[in-house]
Predict the structure of Testis expressed 264, ER-phagy receptor a.
Amino acid sequence: MSDLILVLLLVVLLVCLIVTVGGFLLYSGLLCDVIIKTGPPPVKSVTIAYKFREGSYKDCGAAYTESCSIGPQLSTVGVFYDDPKQRPAEKCRYVVGSVLCEGEEKPDEELQKMYEKFGFKVFSLPEVSHAVTTSFPCSTPLSHVLGPYRVYPRLASYIEERKLCAFPTIEICSSDVINYMVPLSRQTDFFVPEMKEEVTTDVKEEDSDEDRGTDITGADSHSDVSSVSGGVPWDSRETSLAASTAASLASSLPLRDVMDANEDIKHRDNSERGSNESMGSGSSFEELDMDQEEQEAGEEREEKGDGEEAEVPEGEDGARAAVELVAEKKEPLGEGEE
């Protein structure tokens, strides 16, 4: 009989223990509904005292404990920059610290000096208008353990399904709630100076790796680059030729009309100039004859005059008259010279 009572007592105690543990887990947020949304985050710009760490996120508890020991009344903050699935756990980078003030408020100087004394640095996280946000109740110390297991998988699936560019992940834990936010804009403004240096170093290492890869590949990579670089001028040359050809074709018709008109005018001018030159050449020969033989020049002029009246058109009478006047003017000049 006594054995049966002992067994019943053990069962009752076990049931009570299970109920207590279950109730504690439920109160800590085990079955809390996690609602993820996109919009303005509940936390605006904040000024934090932080320490930069590199390593597994599971080891961040010590930094949280140190931060809370300095300012137990302050909200804690964590900024996690890397995805453990894409970067080795020992190389993940994060920031842990306390929130000194929010918005336009100024931090307490004595408290800030206290944090700086223990090696913390001060940094301001900006305010963003759009972010992926959610919250988790912070009712017990166990909430800090249950929160990541409940929130992060849903955050990752939400961002992946909608193909959002969201990083880094920020946790701000107050006395009753843990706010999670992943900014959709101004992401690099959440990088502390140490993180910016890390990123710069990574970029330089990647560039050096690419340079070494180019050197190792040798002639193959060089030939690829040369073939691509050679194609660009060829394409540009074809474009310039096509443009010049189109311009010449567009302007060929009006230019041809103008050139034909100019050729007609030049042809008429040349024909008139040729007739004038032929008359001028005849008159010059007559002048030479008159200078050599003055007496014979008069008879030749009369004979030529009779012949030219029969053969030369009436339009050349003015030219012959001009030649006779020139000859008469030259005769006295010649006598004066003698």
